[in-house]
Amino acid sequence: MTAQVGSAGRRLSLVTVDQILSSLSNIAALIWVAHAFDPVDFGRFSLVVMVYTVAQVVFRSLISTTALVHPEDADTRPGAILASTVVLGVASGVLCVAAGFALVAADSALGGPIVVFGLAVPFLVLHDVGRYLAISRQRPGGAVTLDALWFVLLAVGLVGTQQLGLDSLTWLIAAWTGSGVIASLWVFAQCGAPTAGGLAWLRERWDFSWRSMVGGLAASGTALVTASLMALFSSPIAVAAFRAATLLGAPSTAVQLAVGTAAAADIARERDDPRAVWRHVRRAILIATVVAVVNLVVLVFLPDVIGHALLGEAWDIVEPLMLALSLKVLLMAAQSGLRASLIGTHRIQAAMVTDVVAIVLVGACMVVGAAWGDAEGALWAMAVGTGVSTVCWWIAVIWKGRGPLPELPAAPATDERGEHDEQDEPPVPVKVAPGRHRA
Hints:
There is one protein chain. The protein is an all-alpha fold. The protein folds into 2 domains: 1-203; 205-402, no CATH class. The protein contains 18 helices and 2 strands. The protein has helices at 2-36, 39-68, 71-76, 78-105, 111-136, 140-163, 169-184, 186-191, 200-204, 206-233, 236-248, 250-269, 274-300, 304-311, 315-318, 322-333, 338-344, 348-400, and strands at residues 408-409, 429-430. It has a two-stranded antiparallel sheet. It is globular and about 55 Å long. The chain starts with a helix and ends in a 9-residue tail after the last strand.
């Protein structure tokens, strides 16, 4: 037992390092733009990052989370998972490139950056799915390698564009995405090449994937809508201050995402042991809470000299928001591991409904708060909404945890290369004795 706990702790540490590295690539690019470009270009780059975030949410929901809680697929059929990723990635890239050329035709300054981003999308989502495959296969060191590669190559790319005098936003997007494209090729070294079959794997797991996608899109879609509504009710400076403040909370939220991801992967492998499930949930909450408390102390008492070094003149309008942001992060820590316990035990319907309810509550609070008190009002209202959403997650976990585990379809038979045999019989559900297991 001690060895298992120690192994789980090492995996969690590596997943945490990976999530921090993953967020650092985007944060480093944002900070670079904030210092090297004018506010208009910073806003344009933020929009491109927002598009990437939405694409990332879709692929994480459809493919990464599904692979995470179906470790038998990640272990034996990584090529089938990558095949689905490549097909959807290419389709997404074509849509982005078409949108970019439409913007170019409309003489928009965003046209070139969106075209460059669209060309890189298939590789960027492949990189992200590769990270989650490594975590699902209990090899988080592979995820760390992928993100470390991107971060190092990004540093080289940013310095290179500066030295060559390539100071346009399009070239910066090329450096940011190009480094991710090169890093993504290492996924094939870790998982092998995509197998034939295209979207076959995704079709097999669609019953889980579409519910996961609804929950994910509810979060990202609501974030886009509420950010737009906030722009209507608040000044541009308030919107910029809000975004800068949430940027400072990114390291803590990265840790929360890490513990949730690690917990979901472990719970999926031990879903029939309720004590193990709750052990993973308690550990996730404890770690996230400790980090959130440290985050509160650091941000609330952050010296002005460091604040100005990070955000320049924007620090003066961001500094009053630190307490509200820190409390919001602390309240989010209280729900770490709860979603993981639902999706890890394949109670995806409950997770989807709770996702939608929680994010609508938080989004509504944010808009009302922005209308009432600009960025500071939005963050305080978000803290209140986050507290209510935490209660929703606890109710969902306690309520759904009383019933038996859902029936889990057996993994499709594989040949000696780990590929699906198309002539095998359809998967047969594995029956679970009613009332025997509790989450």
